[in-house]
Amino acid sequence: MSTIIEKTVETYGIDNWGADYFGVNRKGNLVVHAPENENLQADVKEIVDDLRKRGVNTPILLRFPQLIFGQIRKLQIAFRKSIKEFEYDGGHLCVFPMKVNQNRAVIEEYLREGSRYGFGLEAGSKAELYAALGLDQAKDSLLVLNGFKDREFVELAFAGAAAGKNVVIVIEKLSELDHTLRLAEESTKNNPSIPLPMVGVRVKLYSKGSGKWEKSGGEAAKFGLTTTEILEVVRRLQEAGRSDMLRLLHFHIGSQLTDIKRIKNAMKEAARTYAKIRQMGLPIDYLDVGGGMAVDYDGSRTSFESSANYNAREFANDVIYVIKTVCDDENVPHPTIIQESGRYLSAYHAILVTNVQDEIETVVEDLTPMQITVDDPEVVRELFDLRETINAKNYREYYHDALEHRDELFTMFNLGLISLESKGKGEVLFWDICEKADQYAQMKKYVSEEFDDLRRLMCAKYLANFSVFRSMPDNWALEQLFPIIPIHKLNKTPTEYATLCDITCDSDGIVDKFVDLHDVKPVLELHKLVKGEPYYLAMMLVGAYQEVMGNNHNLFGVPHEAHIFIGEEGYIIKKVIFGATLGDSLSSVRFDATHLHDTFRRMVLSRIKSGDLTPKEGNDLIEFYETQVDSYTYLTPNGS
Question: CA-CA distance, 544 to 525, in Å (whole number)?
């Protein structure tokens, strides 16, 4: 690997956050490695070029299902080793929370690999449950039902159990238990041998998680039963003669748990609750430790909000050791541990690739050669002198002088004392001084805060052909960091510092915080745009939550999607799913394309009738408008 490529890998932190799935080849292109064999790889730039030849333009969501398989195996191996090391008598299963990514292809790929280990599903709504009931699961896997439930929800659960699914209704409110007991009575009355769902209880722990979702745990949490409510569930089950239905204890202290210490505290409290319930003579044998296993988005391996100070093996060790210790202390059997780590399983597999459409100018540039004369205002001439004489010794002083002169320039213009042309000259000179001051400042060992702010102000703004709100909503709503990297030119040193602007009509549609090993970078190192050449960026690790939580701001719909298999001969594009058209996006907000076409046609026919358009011009206009309904909602990349 060349020195430049090694430096590029370090600049973007690929080895830190990539989990051994991503790298750079000799061409300087981003590659994705097959987890089962790192020598098998797919060139992302070649994939995008191939798709463009097929008429599939960026933005494109690339799915690599093998990365889901890789994460499943990492998790299973970590727990298998921990169970063996600590001589744990219980088992380990996983259920994938469908809310993390409800895309059918993702769920089916997860089940294809996860079924080898008895991994199942978790559903938190009627729609998710309905879908789950129609999917094939491993015989011993679970279908865990979280969230608030009405009678219809519980009826669907009973239908699933009757059909052979191992359904667990997790009680969130006592009313859900009432529905469950009534339906159990009705079902067994008609058919005493019919399988019934299992029952679980979600406990509201005193322990809290860490990171942005800390409020998911603790006494004020939205979900979970108090100790007295759990005891009431036990009493009602015993009274109804249904104690045998209670099989699972569940807790969840938040998503993206960054600090392993918080996790261990919660495990102790939950394990103790499990032991006490078990000692009451109830057949509970599953302990659902919820989700929350974090993804190290920035690669820093810290308790920072976009990272985690633990890996899969450490997580497994702490879970197994803590639960075993408590159970042995209480003299109760070790439960089968259920895990809901959907983010960890799915984040890596999806990459959003988009093109940089253009650059939004921040620094004012002189479009014609500048000439300064004695007739120019004094403030303009002074700015010119500053630009010509600034150097490494005086750059700080001259920068401060330039700030004062700029204020003077705007004041004089607002008072009508200088012309528009003079104002334009002054602006160009001011930004020239800023550029030179920044160059001198960056040469110093220590860069002061004011010049960090200047660099942030002066950085390029690259217009990226995507919607933050559609494809990276957590970046906008929660300031979640995602690695962003060019998919090509990685064998060339990036020379530009830039932030990204999306194509929505919203000032919040920007990305101006980027992953860094030691801090959060306000700018990203990118390459200078070359006219006529495409420049592609990849938003990495967007497979969890982003696409399912994305919204239709400005009616930008789902992007094109391609499913990629990495094999001996490189990549295979197994499936292409075209993204939303104008018609699709309009129908999502209940516009009828036919009605729109009729209205537009009447307007044009009226113009033809009045003689403002010829019949041919009018017909061409109508045809153009109606054919646009099938076009992509995003911009056509330059050069297409």
Answer: 26
DSSP 276-292: HHHHTT----EEE--S-
Angle, CA 532 vertex, CA 529 and CA 536 arms, to 5°: 55
Q: For 504-520, how does the pLDDT look when each residue is reduced to its tens digit (9 = 90+)?
A: 999 899 999 999 988 89
What per-residue confidence (pLDDT) applies to 209? 47
pTM listed for this prediction:
0.90
What is the assigned CATH class of domain 378-456?
mainly alpha
The torsion angles phi and psi of 450, rounded to 5 degrees, stand at -65, -30
Concatenate the DSSP letters of all residues of 145-166 into one string.
E-S---HHHHHHHHHHHHTT-E
Task: Find out whether 90 and 289 touch, Cβ atoms under 8 Å.
Answer: no
* Mean pLDDT for the stretch of residues 481-493: 97
Q: What is the CA radius of gyration of the chain?
A: 30
The 3-state secondary structure of 378-421 reads HHHHHHHHHHHHCCCCCHHHHHHHHHHHHHHHHHHHHCCCCCHH
* Distances in whole angstroms, Cα of residue 469 to Cα of each of 171, 485, 511, 557, 632: 34, 19, 11, 10, 17
Six token digits for residue 163:
């059909």
Distance CA 159, CA 161 (A): 5
User: What does the DSSP 8-state code read for residue 487?
Assistant: S
Which pair of tokens denotes residue 386?
């500053």
Residue 517 Cα distances to 351, 496, 543, angstroms: 21, 20, 22
pLDDT tens, residue by residue, 28-87: 999 999 998 888 999 999 999 999 999 999 999 999 999 999 999 999 999 999 999 999
Write out the E strands in 361-513. 460-464, 484-486, 496-501, 510-511
Burial of 241 (0-12, 13-18, 19+ CB in 10 A): exposed
**Which of 299, 354, 397 shows the shortest CA–CA distance to 535?**
354
Beta bridge partners of 122: 97, 144
Q: How far apart are CA 224 and CA 209, in angstroms?
A: 15
Burial of 512 (0-12, 13-18, 19+ CB in 10 A): middle
For the segment 73-93, what is each residue's pLDDT rounded down to a tens digit? 999 999 999 999 999 999 999
